[in-house]
Hints:
Largest sheet: 7 strands, mixed
CATH architecture of the largest domain: Alpha-Beta Complex
Order of helices and strands: EHEEHEEEEEHHEHEHEHEHEEHEHE
CATH class of the largest domain: Alpha Beta
Helix content: 25-40%
Low-confidence stretches: none
Pfam families: ADH_N (PF08240), ADH_zinc_N_2 (PF13602)
Domain Enoyl reductase (ER): 10-306
Organism: Enterococcus viikkiensis
Protein name: NADP-dependent oxidoreductase
Strand content: 25-35%
Distance between the termini: 16 Å
Keywords: NADP, Oxidoreductase
Number of helices: 10
CATH topology of the largest domain: Quinone Oxidoreductase, Chain A, domain 1
Mean pLDDT: 96
Structural class: alpha/beta
Amino acid sequence: MKRFAIKDYGAAKDVLTEIEGEPRPVDETHVRVEIVTFAINPYDVALRQGAMRAFRKVTFPYVLGNDGAGIVTEVGKDITHVKVGDEVIVHAISGTYGEEIVVPGKKIVKKPAAMSWEVAAGAVTPWLTTYNLVTHLLGDQVGETVMVQGASGAVGSLLVQFLKAQGKTVLASAAKRNEALVRQLGVDQFVAYDEADAGEIFADQADTVIDATKGGRAGKAGMEIMKAGGNFVALNDLPTEQIKQGNYFSFGPSKEYSDAEALTALADFSQQLHLTIAEVLPFDLASVIEGHERLEGHPAAGKIIVKKAAE
């Protein structure tokens, strides 16, 4: 069984390698899935670089990958929601970079027939962030007007769509080159951060500001946009100096959130969901290295997907 792993921390071309994995047994609560597509995420890049080593211990060779989609080939006796032959969406702790994976049944959900393999793999982590942030972290406190910074990214674009589906007024910022993409998602107002100051234009307008950027100057603009006493949620580090009174949250994954709940919601939302796919690469080591290297730069908006060729 072909799998793509890191043999150490370091540059993609130096540490990513192809290994032959041994199939794992399937117990009563697990499912074996033949992977068709998997997504390459910024988290994978950070893990490979060693940025997570202080709190995420790994044993080399380590197979990366949390997000995938594929076909069920074996199910444990306690599994009732999927059967052999079903097409499924997978969220794993690790290991989707390969030809198959064994995961707990609670980590998969049936893929809607109309959902492409590329979107099924690419939407997983961005959707989990979107759904849990809006539904569980904020809940009824989200307010009626929400600012999404970084609205062209995978998380940002799904936030826009999910919030609009709930009837919210959505303000957004992104680079000028991504304006058309963001406007197509239905935002109410847009500012290109590389042409104008969103903090000045949208000052004191948002009940909640969600910073879905990589951090940096967006934090100050976001605080200016937040109403006094509102919510500021960062997917990266919170601003070191909080210039306005409000509720400040740094959002990240939590064991308190149910994958089964969020993945079921993803399947239910799939007909309205749009996810930009930047590139679909062949199922080989060179593609994995290329995907990692692209994410380290300033890639175009959209997910990078690795897909197995149709047999």
